[in-house]
Amino acid sequence: MNKIAVYPGSFDPITNGHLDIILRTSNIFDKVIVAVLENPDKKSHLFTAEERVNLIKKVTSNIPNIEVESFEGLLVNYVKKKNSSVIIRGLRAISDFEYEFQMTLMNRNLNPDIETFFMMTKTDYSYLSSSVIKQVAHFGGGIKGLVPDAIIDDIYNKIKESN
Ligand code: ADP
Fold first, then answer.
1. Nearest ligand 1 atom, CA 14
2. pLDDT of amino acid 42
């Protein structure tokens, strides 16, 4: 049976923490769909959903079993539509746990056939988040080693543009 996993998130922008989860998941499942949440509150994001999808595509083009797209609405409905029954989430510190716990139980309540799997972060990336990257880049700090090299310029340029 073809096992498809869906890895949802904002990815605003993708970091090396996200990429590590994508790579490790792609070694386990036949196909991984990286699903970028199209938030109705557009102002809360630096990049549009389309731009976030393109940044992820740019740094995952060497992984054969990856698909990247954006989605709207309920995650469980999207997962079902993609013929999957697996949601992948990453866990960093204890602080992630409460939110993830709540979301997982809610999703199970909405569709008990869909399971959520958690991948523990790599120690090196345990402090990494998209928000921290944006803050550091905004003030001109170095982000090399924290996000894929290929998108560093895209991040600085977008921040300059949005100022
Ligand atoms: P959301 O906005 O849905 O929290 P994010 O784009 O911040 O989405 O992250 C998507 C998923 O990746 C979440 O499960 C988050 O916990 C996980 N994640 C984010 N950063 C890291 C990291 N550095 N290491 C491991 N997992 C991470």
1. 6
2. 63
Q: Where are the domains of the chain?
A: 4-162
Q: Would you say 26 is a known binding-site residue?
A: no
Selection from 1-10, 47-56, 93-102 with the highest mean pLDDT: 47-56
For the question of whether the overall pTM of this predicted structure is more than 0.85, the answer is yes
Pocket of ligand 1 (CB under 6 A): 9-11, 15, 17-18, 21, 89-90, 92, 96, 121, 125, 128-130
What length is written for the chain?
163
pLDDT above 90 covers what percent of the chain?
Answer: 91
The third-level CATH classification (topology) of the domain covering 4-162 is Rossmann fold (3.40.50)
CB 7 within 8 A of CB 63: no
Q: What is the Rg, in whole angstroms, of the alpha carbon atoms belonging to the chain?
A: 16
92 counts as catalytic: yes
- Which residues lie across from 119 on neighbouring strands? 90
Half-sphere exposure of 67 (CA within 13 A, CB side): 12
Give bridge partners of residue 37 from the DSSP assignment. Answer: 71
**Are the C-beta atoms of residues 148 and 59 closer than 8 Å to each other?**
yes
24 in a labelled binding site = no
